[in-house]
């Protein structure tokens, strides 16, 4: 019988071992692990005292159902974000990530879809939030986090720090369980965002530090304590915590390490990232693909930073192309490794690839983590080495329960094959003869042209090798001859120029002819989500209206 943990008890266990070590550092704020534990208990008691619902019985709970109250986190990165997640867990509530770029209609959709009873929000977002408050009948609690905007409190809201100060820091009256939920709303770049429901015991292992580096589950609280006692790493998650960047943060916190946030968290600021990393002697910097890496490269080429303590640059969530990796390895200290991770809201971390000056740089092929596999194209069986077909990148073992409120999508994405339940979120992949997995890209953005499938990410990676190309996104548009034709939306480097034929010839060196873009559209900027993922709906709109 495996031993499991909930996230509230992991936090308390770590705080008991390393109470005085920094847990969160941001600007002049330094919160120890003991302070994080105490403030999160205060927040939990505050939420309960202000009427947060009691969790319902889990008996007979469907895979797409939550019977716990939900707390929406509508914030930029900051100590309050992580405190609010832990405090919600201790109140036996489910924190819900909110994309802070949403306009009022999008925000209303998500808050109602989640059934949020409480919202913790930065004051800057008060003008957007106030527009929809009358349409949130389930809302009970508003906690407003102060920021540079100096916006007044919304009607019925309480200042976050006042609420924390007034609450008791003793253990909340509700005892968390391993079956309590964790939810992560998808980015919604190819459809409406959906809440992915995980048991806390499963997400802890799948993404939040519950495995050793060798992939073995941590099955004893004493082992968690022992790891925390040794921890002294300093991790900087530079991407928005409102999506999977908080995985890096909790991976660090659960090991007794320190989370450092860059000074500027409102937008991507490469100078702020690098200067903070230098000042705080950061050991690991987490980014999201080329969208984050390219500004870092530009800044490293123009200014000098002491990054001698940096050991790992970790990327996930979007492509980190070969040419970008090569530039980073040239600019960073010799000993730095680039660890490229692939996974999703529906799988956790699935596989990794390591590049270094010694090993060189490549992309697209990953070493699988426990449970990662490839299913056949018909989703009827798990592929074995020697099966040469493009299948579905999948995960078994520690996988989510389902999608909040969506039985049909749950049953489609989490099928059972021969009695084993899998997560199959939609990426296509090939199992290679050496056991590694070649990840080809999301099926929903695959282009069917003349009877052949073209994976958008493969073409994007090749385009971004060209020295004149700063960024690119590839999509399909209707074609009378081909059904769909491949179109590249390209952002050139400042001062750069290139012809369509030059780009097409450069692509032809690496791609079959049918994969080459039929058209190139040039824009000053490629639209991406706050976490760096390409906005394919935007790209299709550009391609079909150009």
In short:
With 546 residues, the protein is an alpha/beta fold.
Structure commentary:
The chain has 546 residues and is α/β, with parallel strands linked by helices. Among the domains are: 7-20 and 31-213, Rossmann fold (3-Layer(aba) Sandwich); 446-545, ANL, C-terminal domain (GMP Synthetase, Chain A, domain 3). It is 29% helix and 25% strand. The strands form 5 sheets. The protein has a 15-stranded mixed beta sheet that branches. Strands 4-3-5-6-7 form a 5-stranded parallel beta sheet. A 3-stranded antiparallel beta sheet has the order 8-9-19. Strand 24 (447-449) and strand 25 form a beta hairpin. It starts with 6 loop residues before the first helix and ends with a helix. The model has no long low-confidence stretch (mean pLDDT 94).
Report the C-alpha radius of gyration, rounded: 23 Å
Derived structural class: alpha/beta
Tell me how many strands there are: 28
At the fold tier of CATH, the topology name of the domain at 7-20 and 31-213 is Rossmann fold
Distance between the terminal alpha carbons, to the nearest Å? 59 Å
* Low-confidence residue ranges: none
The number of helical elements comes to 16
CATH top level label of the domain at 7-20 and 31-213: Alpha Beta
CATH architecture of the domain at 7-20 and 31-213: 3-Layer(aba) Sandwich
Note the main sheet: 15 strands, mixed
Please tell me what the overall shape is: globular
- Measured by DSSP, the beta-strand proportion falls in 25-35%
Question: Regarding quaternary structure, how should these chains be classified?
Answer: single chain
What level of helicity do the residues show?
Answer: 25-40%
Mean pLDDT: 94
């Amino acid at each position: 019988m495996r031993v499991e943990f909930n996230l509230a008890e992991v936090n308390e266990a770590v705080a008991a071992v390393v109470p005085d070590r920094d847990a969160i550092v941001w600007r002049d704020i330094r919160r120890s692990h003991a302070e994080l534990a105490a403030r999160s208990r205060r927040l939990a008691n505050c939420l309960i005292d202000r009427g947060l619902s009691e969790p319902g019985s889990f008996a007979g709970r469907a895979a797409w159902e939550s019977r716990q109250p939900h707390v929406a986190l509508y914030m930029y990165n900051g100590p309050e974000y992580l405190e609010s997640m832990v405090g919600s867990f201790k109140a036996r509530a489910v924190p819900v990530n909110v994309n802070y770029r949403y306009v009022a209609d999008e925000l209303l959709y998500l808050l109602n879809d989640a059934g949020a009873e409480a919202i913790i929000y930065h004051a800057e977002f008060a003008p957007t939030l106030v527009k929809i408050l009358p349409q949130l009948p389930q809302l009970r609690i508003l906690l407003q986090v102060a920021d540079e905007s100096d916006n007044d409190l919304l009607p019925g809201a309480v200042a976050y720090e006042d609420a924390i100060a007034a609450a008791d820091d003793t253990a909340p009256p509700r005892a968390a369980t391993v079956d309590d939920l964790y939810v992560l709303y998808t980015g919604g770049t190819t459809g409406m965002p959906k809440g992915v429901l995980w048991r806390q015991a499963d997400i802890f292992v799948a993404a939040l530090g519950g495995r050793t580096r060798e992939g073995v589950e941590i099955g004893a609280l004493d082992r968690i304590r022992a790891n925390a006692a040794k921890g002294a790493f300093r991790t900087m998650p530079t991407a928005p915590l409102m999506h999977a960047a908080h995985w890096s943060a909790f991976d660090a916190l659960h090991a007794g390490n320190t989370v450092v946030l860059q000074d500027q968290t409102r937008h991507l600021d490469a100078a702020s990232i690098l200067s903070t990393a230098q000042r705080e002697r950061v050991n690991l910097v987490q980014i999201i693909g080329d969208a984050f890496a390219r500004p870092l490269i530009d800044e490293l080429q123009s200014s000098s930073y002491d990054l001698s303590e940096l050991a790992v640059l970790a990327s996930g969530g979007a492509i980190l192309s070969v040419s970008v990796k090569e530039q980073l390895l040239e600019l960073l200290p010799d000993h730095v490794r680039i660890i490229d991770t692939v996974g999703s809201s529906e799988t956790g971390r699935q596989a990794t690839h390591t590049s270094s000056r010694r090993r060189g740089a490549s992309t697209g092929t990953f070493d699988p983590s426990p449970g990662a596999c490839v299913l056949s194209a018909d989703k009827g069986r798990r592929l074995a080495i020697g099966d040469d077909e493009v299948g579905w990148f999948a995960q078994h073992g520690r996988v989510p329960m389902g999608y909040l409120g969506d039985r049909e999508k749950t049953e489609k994405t989490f099928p059972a094959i021969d009695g084993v339940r899998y997560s199959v979120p939609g990426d296509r992949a090939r199992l290679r003869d050496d056991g590694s997995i070649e990840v080809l890209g999301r099926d929903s953005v695959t282009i069917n042209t003349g009877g052949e499938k073209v994976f958008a990410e493969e073409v994007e990676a090749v385009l971004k090798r060209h020295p004149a190309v700063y960024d690119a996104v590839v999509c399909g548009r209707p074609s009378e001859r081909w059904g769909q034709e491949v179109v590249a939306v390209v952002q050139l480097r400042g001062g750069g120029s290139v012809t369509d034929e030059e780009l097409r010839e450069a692509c032809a060196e690496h791609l079959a002819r049918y994969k080459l873009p039929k058209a190139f559209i040039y824009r000053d900027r490629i639209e991406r989500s706050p976490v760096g993922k390409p906005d394919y709906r935007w790209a299709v709109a550009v391609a079909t209206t150009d």
